[in-house]
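Researcher: Let's continue the batch. This sequence belongs to NB-ARC domain-containing protein, and it's 113 residues. Same format as the previous ones, please.
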Amino acid sequence: MGKTTLAKQVYDAADVKKHFKVRAWITVTQSFKLGDLLKDMVEQLHNAIRRPVPQGINNMNNNHLKTIIKDFLQKRRSVKGMPLAIVAVSGVLSTKDKRRIDEWDMVGHSLGA
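Model: Same format as before. Here are the structure tokens for NB-ARC domain-containing protein:
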């Protein structure tokens, strides 16, 4: 079984769903665009709580999108205060080439690390 298949099975598991009411499945390709990834995350998070996606999302810069995600996650904490972002980050990091430190740094900086 591959890493993505295993991660998806965990993501879809009933026990996980009951602990994480707000979740987002983000697919990261070898040549992902950060802006597209952030927009997808904003859309999924807002759809998960049945709230409208912020207007003008397609015209927002990456910093604005990051702020929206950060504010969203700070308002909704999961089990034992762990932010939902940890689940998303683990999925992103597991797909990255561990030898490409620059890509790891970009992901970390994008999430405010």
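Researcher: Any comment?
Model: The radius of gyration is 14 Å.
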